[in-house]
Amino acid sequence: MAELTTLARPYAKAAFKFALENSQLDQWSAGLGIAAQTAADEKAAELLSAPQLTSDQKAGLIIDVCGEQINDGLKNFLMVLSANHRLALLPEISVLFDKYKADQEQSIDVDITSAFDLANDEQQKLAEALSQKFNREIHVSTGTDKALIGGVVIRSGDMVIDGSVAGRLEKLAEAINS
């Protein structure tokens, strides 16, 4: 995984820089997301790895599937990726691009999982507290997991805040057993 990120990073940075300079961050984010989904599809991946297809044909496959949902700049980007045999990196490039975009916009996506459905005011309070903690705009998505027993688990990227009863019980069990 780290190797893919290392390979994808220069392409993601170049795409981000171009999109930022042309005020097209949202269009590029959406277009890269669609292209990444296409490249990650099992049948598409098989075609993209076919040695009998030229790099132009491989890029053309993704461009044709995405159609009007991608702009000319992104089409050129896909052609460059294909010429360098890097179309398989599209999912990782899309993830990195979205991270750069979130940093630029000073926003962060947060997943909140709770044992029970959270009321709107509870979600709002959590979002406000997280916004102050991270000094960023927070985009919240919620879910439920009865196995948590109570409390919440907050995830954002590789950061996890486990405030669940199940998590506390697990920590207590570890402390007792050690």
Q: Based on Cα principal axes, name the global outline.
A: elongated
Structure annotation, total helices: 8
User: Termini distance?
Assistant: 33 Å
Strand arrangement within the widest β-sheet reads: 2-1-3-4
CATH superfamily of the largest domain: N-terminal domain of the delta subunit of the F1F0-ATP synthase
Described by strand count, sense and barrel closure, the largest sheet is: 4 strands, mixed
Q: Low-confidence runs (pLDDT<50, min 5 residues)?
A: none
Q: Do you know the CATH architecture of the largest domain?
A: Orthogonal Bundle
Q: What percent of residues adopt helix (DSSP H or I)? A: 55-70%
Q: How do the SSEs run, as a string of H and E?
A: HHHHHHEHEEEH
Assess the beta-strand content as a share of residues: 5-15%
SSE class: alpha+beta
Task: Report the oligomer.
Answer: single chain
User: Radius of gyration in whole Å, from Cα?
Assistant: 20 Å
**DSSP E strands, number:** 4
User: In CATH, what is the class of the largest domain?
Assistant: Mainly Alpha
Number of domains: 2
- Give the integer mean of the pLDDT values: 91
CATH structural fold name of the largest domain: Peroxidase, domain 1
Membrane topology: Peripheral membrane protein
Protein name: ATP synthase subunit delta
Family: Belongs to the ATPase delta chain family.
InterPro entries: ATP_synth_OSCP/delta_N_sf, ATPase_OSCP/d_CS, ATPase_OSCP/dsu
